[in-house]
Amino acid sequence: MQPNPPQNLTEIAKQLPDLLEKLGVAANKSSTVEQHREAFRMGCDLLTALVDCLDKKDSALKTLQAALGFSISVDDIEKFVTAESDVLRRMNLTEKDIKAANELLRSLGKNGELRDLQVNESQTLEMLKSLRDSLCYLASLTERNRKVSTETVDIVSDSVLDTCLITGDLLAVPVGMAAGPLGVTAAVFLAVASVGSGLKSIFKKIGKLRDRVRQEGEDEKQSESSDQIRKALRKKPAPKLEKK
After folding, report:
1. What is the pLDDT of residues 212-221, one digit of tens each?
2. What would the pLDDT profile of 70-87 be if each residue is shown by its tens digit?
């Protein structure tokens, strides 16, 4: 665990770009076990802190759901993409990650998935808990000197980018709620669109991620079994040739 885990949404948001960077390093085939361990430990800690933060009675997620009891649709996709880019820049994401987020949002818009967006607290927490559990399990594998496959790392990175979309605009909700009717409208509508789109995107990946985590576990068992066989063979005396 991190020596000083983040205590609030602002601290979590500041560390998400670092997590994306570490996962990018881990995705490299030349990466070390220690680099994988560092990335997935951080991911486990951050997602644990995020779930705990959003599950509180006064969380921004609960405030947002209570503020808007109906769904919204994004009509001007490019305007939405521009607004989200600004949010992600304030979070200090790299231009590469912002470009990936923009492509994701445009893809959702092209497929008609930016219609009827809404904030569902229970579903959002369920998806984030599932991502947390996956990250923590993968972290446990790295503690046994196992590297995580590149395919799994890539899915985790994409899911963390979705998490940035969910987290970034939630930070603006308390400020918007205190800024009067216009502030409430702007902050709430952008946050609903952001959280809703992030939730739709992560929902698409979470099943595949669970399958990959199960496969990583099976590979670990197979690896342990192979190690046990090799150790047993090393201990077994060599057969003696019979003299004729």
Report:
1. 999 988 877 7
2. 677 888 999 999 999 999
Q: How confident is the model at residue 223 (pLDDT cuts 50, 70, 90)?
A: low
Predicted local distance difference test score (pLDDT) of residue 6:
85
Residue 128 within any structural domain of the chain: yes
Rounded to whole angstroms, how far apart are CA atoms 1 and 46? 10
Instruction: Evaluate whether residue 3 is within a structural domain.
Output: no
d(CA 26, CA 29): 8
The residue length of the chain stands at: 244
Backbone angles phi, psi at 72, to 5 degrees: -130, 165
Whether residue 173 lies inside any domain: the answer is: yes
Domain count, the chain: 1
**Global pTM?**
0.85
Instruction: Give the C-alpha distances (Å, rounded to integers) separating 208 from 151, 157, 158, 236.
Output: 10, 13, 12, 42
- Which range of residues forms the domain containing residue 46? 9-224
What's the rounded Cα separation, in Å, for the pair 109 and 169? Answer: 18
How far apart (Å, rounded) are the C-alpha atoms in residues 109 and 206? 20
By the 8 A CB rule, do 63 and 108 touch? no
Could you give the CA distance from residue 226 to residue 117 in angstroms, rounded to a whole number?
Answer: 49
Residue 17 tokens read as 């770009």
DSSP 112: T
Q: How far is CA 19 from CA 43, 157, 218, in A?
A: 6, 9, 26
Q: By three-state DSSP, how is residue 7 classified?
A: coil
C-alpha–C-alpha distance, residues 61 and 161, integer Å:
18
